Amino acid sequence: MPVLDIGGTHVTAALVDPATGRPLSSSVRRRPLGSDAAADSILDAIALAALELPAEHRPDWGVAIPGPFDYDTGIGRFTGVGKFEALSGVDVGAGLRRRLAHRAEHLRFLNDADAFAIGEYHAGAAAGHERVVCLTLGTGVGSSFLRGGRPVHDGAHVPPGGHVHRLTVHGLPLEEYVSRRAIRAHYARLDAVAGHGSLPDVHEIAALARAGNSAAAEAFRYAFEALGQALAPWVDRFEAGVVVIGGSMAQSWDLIHPAFSAGLVLAGGTTARVLPAGRSAEAPLIGAAHWAQDTSNAAR
């Protein structure tokens, strides 16, 4: 099963073995992607990665891509989000099918956070749990509320659209506390030296925190305690058994976990366990393959 995982800086193409449900390591192709490029350049780059896969595969693709996106029609809705703006109103599905020619008959799109969650449900930390909240921490906060392995986007038990980044905490949008931009800015406010030079990135702030820098440690505590406070009521409403956290920031689990757990307690506590992703890199590929398989079968 061919799959694509499209992110703001990279696109990954792979073949997922239907027998094992895992990506074939020899097939994985990861290529840089400029989310601020022109539409044709973005589509060309995605197609280039896809065309590097061995040609003998099914014509149904699973494609994980961030929102805002019309996943049913394959049309981009990226407006005011700072990435893929050139794809707003563009039929991404048609553009990719044209570039992939006979190798792509159907493209089954899904949100990248949902792909991650489905992958973790089938092969990672969410396995065996009926109700799961999954978070991806990168430039911002991605989220998926999963019931029985299927994303839940509507209803009183999930935030609007199932999107945590739309929540507020202490009167401000959540991503004013938890995002690459917010963590760096808060660190700069706390550290006088950082405020007058080039700002370290989040992984560098994490290293400073481990080395005893109090401003760096506080920047992490401030961000992820707020995340726990914002999420706790929704974890309880959804009756989630676990919260699974992945994404590039999750590499700083030793700093994230205690602050996030403290935030959950401050908001009233929850019985859900908090776990790191089991297959953070592979999960979106695995999830995209399951989505393509399931939606292909449903269409028949």
Question: Describe it for me?
Answer:
There is one protein chain. The protein has helices spanning 39-51, 92-100, 112-123, 180-190, 202-210, 214-238, 253-266, 283-299; strands at residues 2-6, 10-15, 29-32, 60-65, 69-70, 75-76, 106-111, 131-137, 141-147, 150-151, 168-169, 172-173, 242-246, 273-276. With 300 residues, the protein is α/β, with parallel strands linked by helices. The chain has two domains: 2-111, 2-Layer Sandwich (Nucleotidyltransferase, domain 5); 125-276, 2-Layer Sandwich (Nucleotidyltransferase, domain 5), CATH 3.30.420. A five-stranded mixed beta sheet has the order 3-2-1-4-7, with helices on both faces. Strands 10-9-8-13-14 form a five-stranded mixed beta sheet, with helices on both faces. Strands 5-6 form a two-stranded antiparallel sheet. α1 (39-51) packs across α2. The two termini are 17 Å apart.
- Domain count: the total is 2
CATH homolog superfamily of the largest domain: ATPase, nucleotide binding domain
CATH architectural grouping of the largest domain: 2-Layer Sandwich
Q: What is the multimeric organization of the chains shown?
A: single chain
Please count the beta strands (DSSP E, at least 2 residues each).
14
Main sheet record: 5 strands, mixed
Q: What's the rounded overall pLDDT mean? A: 93
| CATH class category label of the largest domain | Alpha Beta
* Secondary structure category: alpha/beta
- In helices, the fraction of residues equals 25-40%
User: With helices defined by DSSP (H or I, 4 residues minimum), what is the helix count?
Assistant: 8
Task: Show unreliable segments.
Answer: none
Based on Cα principal axes, name the global outline.
globular
The Rg value, from CA coordinates, equals 19 Å
